Automatic annotation (TrEMBL):
It comes from Bradyrhizobium neotropicale. Pfam families: Trans_reg_C. One of its GO terms (biological process) is regulation of DNA-templated transcription. It comes from the Bacteria. This is Transcriptional regulator. The keyword Phosphoprotein applies.
Length: 256
């Protein structure tokens, strides 16, 4: 979920609408509304934030440090002034990146993903040799071939790749896909999305990449290459093999 902070309602509405069309949940705040929300937001709500976009607001100089006290999500300043002095001041205020309008939303998504990657290190995730996502709306590549996915399923896959090997709850996925303020849909919609995504990955990979456990959640589980190199006769035998390799339970996410 993206948080857009700008005192111009038309601007926040424009960004929210554009991000929704890209399949990314978002919400816009004025600076005053954002201060109130930041002070009262729960840890679970803040964990669902992918990035903060700071637009035109008098409080932009003090907001980044206040945000950083509560969240590690990337902070990107969106500026209409292409002056070095202004750009340096924004970086000094604590933002992670500065972009100048006009800019395509997919570039902002890509920049957010790049910042997040740098923070966890440049080593590839264990699954990236078989599943590659780009975090910018581009179709993912499964075993080197593009796989077209509906935007909700793509967002779920991105979230799972970013948390590869970890158990993630239905609530965490719902917040990442629909946003913490969504009231139109029920969390149960995630079960349908994950089921469809799971089948598509199984058809392409030849095994269940998504493990589901009742009352716990879901986990993207890509086995080591040497496991898949063993002879595979039937799909159900692969499932037995994977269950045996990953018999040790993973740590539960916080709050479970």
């Amino acid at each position: 979920m993206y948080i857009i902070v700008d005192d111009r309602e038309s601007v926040t509405n424009s960004y929210v609408g554009g991000l929704v069309r890209e399949g990314v949940s978002s919400i816009g705040f004025s600076s005053g509304e954002f201060w109130d929300w930041l002070q009262s937001a729960s840890e679970a709500d803040l964990a669902a934030v992918d990035a903060f976009l700071l637009g035109d607001t008098d409080a932009r100089g003090s907001l980044p440090r206040a945000v950083r006290k509560r969240s590690a999500a990337p902070i990107i300043a969106v500026s209409g002034q292409k002056m070095l002095k202004n750009t340096l001041e924004l970086f000094e205020s604590g933002v992670d990146d500065v972009v100048h309008v006009p800019i395509h939303l997919r570039e902002i998504l890509a920049r957010t993903a790049a910042i997040a990657r740098r923070r966890v290190g440049d080593l590839p995730r264990p699954c990236e040799n078989r599943i590659q996502v780009f975090f910018n709306g581009r179709d993912p590549e499964i075993e080197g071939r593009a796989l077209t996915l509906p935007r909700r399923e793509l967002r779920i896959l991105e979230y799972m790749v970013g948390n590869h090997g970890k158990w993630i709850t239905k609530t965490q996925i719902f917040n990442a896909v629909y946003g913490i303020f969504e009231s139109t849909f029920d969390e149960s919609v995630i079960e349908s999305h994950v089921s469809k995504l799971r089948k598509k990955l199984r058809d392409r990979l030849g095994f269940d990449a998504i493990v589901a456990r009742r009352y716990v959640g879901y986990r993207l589980n890509i086995p080591a290459a040497e496991v898949l190199d063993e002879p595979m006769q039937e799909l159900d035998e692969v499932g037995i093999l994977l269950n045996r390799v990953h018999a040790a339970p993973a740590a539960y996410p916080a709050g479970n």
